[in-house]
Structure formats: C-alpha cells, structure tokens
Amino acid sequence: MAEVEETLKRIQSHKGVIGTMVVNAEGIPIRTTLDNSTTVQYAGLLHQLTVKAKSTVRDIDPQNDLTFLRIRSKKHEIMVAPDKEYLLIVIQNPCE
Amino acid sequence: MAPKRQKQKSSKRGKTKITLPVSEEAEPVNMESMGHPEIYPLVLTNKTQEIFNCRIDEDVTDEQPYKLIKKEDIFADFENRAAVSDFYPVKKIIQEYPGDELLLVYDKDFKYGLNFYLIGTEEGKENYLNPPEVPEEQEEYKEHIPEDIYIYKPPICKPWVSLGSEKEIEEELVKESTKEITYMISRKRSEFGAPVKFSDQNASSVKDAYIECTAYPDKNFTLKQLERDVGMQVVPKIKDTSTQTRWTYPKNATTQYYPREFSEEEKEALGQSKTLTEFLNNVSISVEIALQQNEIMNTFINDWKSLAEEEGTFGDKTDTHLKEYQSFTDLHNLTEKMITCVSWHPIIYGLIAVSVAVRLSFEERVHFSGKLLLQPSLILFWSFSDPIHPQLMLESPDDIFCFQFCPSDPNIIAGGCINGQIVMWDITAHADRIENIKADGSRSKNVTLKPMFLLEPESNKEAMYIRHCAVSSIENGHRKVITDIHWLPDTFEINRLGSVFENRSGISCQLVTCSADCTICFWDIRPQKALTPQPPTEKKKEESIEVPFDVPSTFLHLNLSWKPLSKVRLSKGETTLDHCPTKLSLSEDSLLYKAQDKMLAQSKATKAGEMNPYQNLEGGLGNHLKPIDDFCTKFFVGTEEGEVIYTDWKMERDPETGRFMTKKPVSLYTVHDGGVHTVQRSPFYKDIILTVGGWNVAIWKEGIMTGPLLQSSCAPKRYTSGHWSLTRPGVFYIGREDGYIDIWDLLEKTHEPAQSQNICITMITYIKPWTFSAKQQFIAIADYYGTLHILEIPWTLSRPSTSEVSSISHYFEREVKHLEYVEQRKKIREEEKKEMELEMEKKKVKTYQKSKEQLEAELKMDYESYLELEKDILIHLGLIKVKETMSYMEMI
What we know:
Chain A: Belongs to the GAMAD family. Chain A: GO terms for molecular function: dynein intermediate chain binding. Chain A: Its main location: cytoplasm. Chain A: Residues 4-92 form the Roadblock/LAMTOR2 domain. The structure holds two protein chains of two kinds. Helices cover 38% and strands 30% of the residues of chain A. Chain A has two helices and five strands; from the N terminus they run αββαβββ. In chain A, a hairpin with a 3-residue loop joins β4 (77-82) and β5 (86-92). Chain B is α+β, with helices and mostly antiparallel strands. Chain B is built from 20 helices and 37 strands. A five-stranded mixed beta sheet of chain B has the order 6-7-8-9-13, with no helix packed on it. A four-stranded antiparallel beta sheet of chain B has the order 1-4-3-2. In chain B, a hairpin with an 8-residue loop joins β8 and β9. The longest helix of chain B has 45 residues, at 804-848. The radius of gyration of chain B is 79 Å and the shape is elongated. The interface between A and B is medium-sized, with 38 and 29 residues.
C-alpha cells in the first residue's frame, strides 16, 4: 500500500507532470490525482483507445503485444502503460 | 368561146409550153371535187382577153370580176383560132350550154388553180350573179373573219340513234313482276269523327297479333373465316405495384448514464492488492524513462518555426517612435502649475486623472500663502473626447502630490497633500457622468468660438468641483508632504503591530503612505473600534463640524479624526537624522495591471451584499483571525538622499524597553546621486525592482543583498521619472529633466537607452503607460509646465517577442550570477591582496639588511643624478645660459 503510494508520488513529482491515474482493466479508475470528472473522462477514453491499439498490434503480428502508448498533443503528452489488469495513465507537459 | 381561147392562150403562156390539150375530146376538168361542179377553171391569154374584152384590171376588176360572154363569140373564136383558143378545153360545155351567155369569172387568187373560171351551168351562173354572189362572197367573208366573232349556233336536235345501250338498261331495270293489289280500308261511316279509344295490349298475349321472323343461323351464310388480318406489337411488360409504410411518430428518447466507479472500500482493497504493486513496479520504469525523455529534450520542437518572430504585426515594424496622440492643459487657472501625479482610470477608456500643484518653492509658498488659499487645489479628470474641459475637478484643501484610485472601487480616490493630510474622495454620484463622456461631443463646439479669457469656470456647466469627503487628522498624521500613497491589495490586511491578516472583506481598505517626515504610516479606512472611551467633550467637538450636504457620507467617520494604524519610522540608528522616504514599493502592486479580475470580484461582492461595501464599512478586524506567518512584510523604500532601503514593517519587540520598535533595515544602498523618485516592481517579475534617481537607474532583485543587478552609468541629464513598460518585460521608460524620454530595452542595450525622444521642453515629472487593448497602448507624460501629453506606443515597443519573458529572466539570472561571481572575485582578490602584502613585507625585510656604506653610496649617486636633472630642466626653461653653466661647472 505504501509502496503504491510512494511510486505514484514519485511519478507525480516529475517535472511537468499534470496528473497520474491508475485504471483497472474495465476502465474504472482506482487511483488518481485529478478531479473526478476529468479522471472518469480520461479513463473511459484512454481505455478504449488502448484496447484498440492493442488489438491493432496483435492483428498485425499475433506474437506481438502493446507495451507503451504515448500520445503527443499540442499542449501535453499522455502516456499509457498497459497491463493485463491495470492501466497507468500519466499526463505531462513537456515544454516550458 | 373567146374565153376558152383566151384560156388556152394563157395556158400556153402560163405553163411552159405544155402542149395544148391534145384531145379535144378530153373531158374538161371541173371543180366537182371542190364542191362546185359547175366551175371550169380556164387560163386566158392576153390575146383572148383582148378579144373578149376581159382584160385583167381593165375590164375585169376586183369589183366586177366576171364577164358575161356570149356563146356566139366563143364559137367565132373557135373558128378563128381553133385549137389555139383558150376556150377549147371547155368547148363541149359551151356547146351543151343552154344559155346564151356564159359567165366568166376572173380568179385573181387562183382559187381554182387558174386565173379564170367558167361557170358551166345556167344555175351556176344565176347563182353566181345573184345569190351566189352573196354566198360566194359570204364564203369569202367567212374565210376572212372566222376568228373575230364567234357566232353561237344552238345544237340542232337530231333523232336518237340506238347503239345498243338500251338493252343493258332494260336488264338492270327492276320491274314489278306481280300485279299490285290495292286495298281500300275504311271504317264504318258511323264511326267517323267519333272519339277514339286506345288501349295497350301485349303482343305476345294475343294470338296472331304479330308475326315474327326469328333469326336463325343459316348455314349457307355462315362463313368460316379462314384468314384474318391481325396486327401485333411487342410491348414491355409493365407492372404497377404500390406499398405503404407504416408511419411512426417521432418520439423523444433520452439516455442517461453515469460512469462506473469503485467505492472507497473497493479502492482501498485494490490498492492493497499485490497485483497492483507488481504492476506498478513493472510499469513505473518505462513510464519514468518516458517522462525523463520529455524532460531532457522536447523532440518535437520545430527549430525552424520557433526561430521566427510572430508575423502578426499591426503597425509598421520600423516605426519605433512614440506618436503624439493628445495633450491636455488646464487653461482656466492662470497660475503656473506643474503636474505631480498622473493616474489612468482603471476601467473607463480614455479617462486620466492628473493632480496639479503650484510651481513654487517653499519660501515662495510661504510668501504667497494668502493668494494660494484662494485658489483651489485640484485633481483634474481629462477625457480623450474633450481636450479643453476637464470632466471632473476634485477639490482638496491643499496641493496634492500623489494620489491613487482604489483598486476595488475606482470611485474612491485617496490623495496625499503637501501638508501631510490624506484626502479621500468618493465620486460614486458622478460616476455616470464620466462613464458616458463619449456621448457628448457637441458641447466643445459651442465653446471654442469664445476666446479663452472670457470663459469663467462657472460658465462651464459641465465640470464641477467635487469636494473631498474626508481628510485625515492633522495632529496625528504626517507632518510634512506625503510623497507616496498606496492602497494595500484586498487580499491581506495588517493590524497595529504590523502582523498580516487575511482580508475578509474582499475590498482594499488600507492605505500606506510615506512622507518627508521620515515615517511610513498605515491607515485603515474602516471606522476604528474605540479602545478607550473618548471623553464626551471631544465627541461634541467632532459633531459640531458641519459637513456640506452634497458630500457623500462614505468616510464621514474618518473626517478630521483619522489616525494612522501604525507608524514606521525610518531611523538611521542613533543619529537624529532619519531617512526621508520618497517612494515605496510593496510586494504586490495591484494598480499596475488592468484590474479586470478584481472588478469581477468586486462585482461579485456587491451582488452578494447588494450594496457598495464602501458605503457600509465594518469596523476594525476581528481579533480572532490568526496572523499569516510566512507573509513577506518587507518592502523597498527610496529616499531623498538616493538610498534604496529594504526594510520590514513588522514591529518587533525591543528587548530593552519592552516596546514595539521597528526593525532595522535589512539592506541599504546608496546608489543614486539624487533623490529616488521611482521605486517600482516589474509587472512580469515579482522580485525585480526598478529604481530611478539622480542621474542613473538601478534594477534590483529582491533577495539579492549584494547590490543592484544593473546599475547604469551617469546620464548626461538628470532622470526625473521612470516606469516599467506594461507589456514588454525588458523595456522601461525614463523621463529626463530636459523633456526627453529615454526608452531602455534590456534585450538591445544595457549600458545606454535604446531610444531617446523629445516630448516637451521642460522637465518630465511623471510617466504612466496604460494598455487599453492589444493594439492600443498609451503613455501619459506629465511635464513641469502642467501639460499632460498622451502618446501612443508603437507596435514594436508594446508587443513582446515570443520568448522575451524567458530571455529577460535569463538575463537577470545571469546578472545575479555575475554579482555572485563579483563577490567571489572580491574574496579572491582579498586573499590575493593579502598574499601580495605578505610578499611585500618579506621583500622589505630583505632590503633592510643592506649595509650603511652601500646606502650612502647609493644616496650620493641619487643626488648627483638629481643635480643633472635639475640642470637639464633649467636649460630647457631657459633660465640658465649654456655659457654660464659651463663657467659654473669650471668653478666647481
């Protein structure tokens, strides 16, 4: 429990990180540093996108798998680390 | 006979001697073939013609073409000439002729072939002579005129000749074969004329009433149609079908959903699960790598694009001068005035307030004090739309040297007087007048026709004198001129000890002033809770002061009894001389920015309270509030002597006396050569302060105690005013005493101003820029002669470049480092110096061990070289001639 919090806090303390959240396999947020509505929105959308990305990678090569997903937008970068059961989403603002 | 002969003769001549008719017996030719059997054509020769006197054209002419010739003559001719006679061919006729005379006709036209013809019968002769003359003539006439007149001859009825057609007709005729039977039916005579009775009866009911012939198919007449003419055409098969759909009416349907969420316990449970821990451990590595990648470098930067400046320029890029927009001068008051302070109205566009003071020194003020009392001291409100008449004039008891709009409510103005009083105005009642200035543009037209000296202030109905509504207490306030006044922002407030508390009221309610009597005072505009019961006599005295009724009663509680909340004395330690503060700068200066957010906050407050909070000030602050501990209570002060002091307003307990004393200043620098008149924080950086005074400029960073970041060299002219630019972090404006404005751009040059522009002929006393929109930025420059110039800042000076903020902050950081480096170098230098001194001493010790003789020898040599030098100089000067010198040397 403490480890979880510590890891999340460490990630959150990186420069430019706006928010961090942990989402389960169905898209339901477990831990978050943002407010509820934003979290729910991010969780739902990114979960679907991750599933799609994963299926795309597997379709091309069934022995391949998705390890990391980074979405770079004008304002910030969204990083999604998928797993069998959970999803870690980090939003960072890379530029000053 | 004669004619016969003549004919014969003629025939001889006529014809080519065709032999005479050989045979007398030949039958004479007659014209039977022509229908005239009695005519016998003859040819009569001329001889015959003479004989019978039927010469052509003499005896026989056209009119009488015949001649009767006796028969005897012809017989005579026969005997005379026998066969030669022309009549010989017709001899027989003549012999047989019954009559005596024969008719001989001249045939002029040779109708019968020869020139004469003989009528052989008596009948013919008769016909010829009488009627035949007519028909012959008629025949001749017929021949001549058949075409001219058609004579109708009706058909002559002739008997019908049967040709056999009647038989056919007879066959075709239908004749009745049977005999017709006639019946006559009549009624009884008695019934004649009787009324008739008609009755109906069915034909089939009575027998034999009718006879019918029914039709029956007769086989003889049935034809079997073996051939039939039928037409055929191919057509496409067309099918018509129709359907109908069932119409369903539109129905509104809504769905509402909410996201699935875990409850708190589930979250906790999940948080403690091992799987989550493992997952995070696995994943956090890659995530941190990604995060660090972003921190190291932004890989998506387009260097080419970020190299360029923003292209969207509004004005001309090359135009860097301030453009004159408008200037305001008060023409009504005739005394020479100067502008001491300028402030733009925070909200209303184009409204600027100016405080004017008389241009006299202290002695002259004392000298003319009687005259000065009569003239009101004013703060004038100017608007862009009317350059001649001020919109409002605020009256004050004495000349104002500084004033400020309240940031929470621009209708409240606080000003500092030359006599040390604080004056408060409340122009809420006139607010609509100044807001709707643009609507009236016409009144200026009426006024410009009259010359200025005829106008009196009373005739100008528009501008009014607005009296102040409160002044501070004379005894308890400042003793000398108030040099600077600031409203404290509405986020915090302080108490008597200088501790900072949270400001619950949401409005700025405290002021800070500094004056030439070396004190800085904090004032509160709310009614003070009476700590000690005041003696009733004093109260009565206060109540007896009458207030004019048109003055709003906002600050009535303060009038003439207003005491400062706390006083901070800037003392120089033991000496009695204190610092004379001229300007101060707190940590937050709210009026540098356009207070839009603040207005929103204030409007919210007014809505909540439904009244202007300034009308209903609550007294004091509750003691139950905890003071904010880590609030920065330090501030910068500039003094008359040119020092910049960084001090604290919080009182501390003096350990000896037990009273609350002001702290000693944290740092003090004498940087400027004259009085500091501008101490200002940068609008972009909270800890960068600009100070202008004397002949130079200094930029400070709060927290760096070693010295200013930038200190400019001495300018040729004295600097009299300064201000940061509101939009560009590295630009500030400095006004000089010769009317020039220096525009400094730290990105361009840091040792001298980037630009210098002449504004007016006299000293610039105040500079205040203001932004109205992204495209329009004005700067108000006040000069010593009382004119306020409004200039427009060009695009290049108002628009920051894309990375200007970061560039300037980098510059300041570099300067800080430079200062640190300098400090370090100082230390190094100190050490080096020490080392050098040690070495020097060592050297000195060494040299001291030289022997005395050596010293004497050395001295002598020195003396001799000195004498030579003296001689040379004297020769150069011409005081000693060469000869003399020689003799002098010989003597020695």
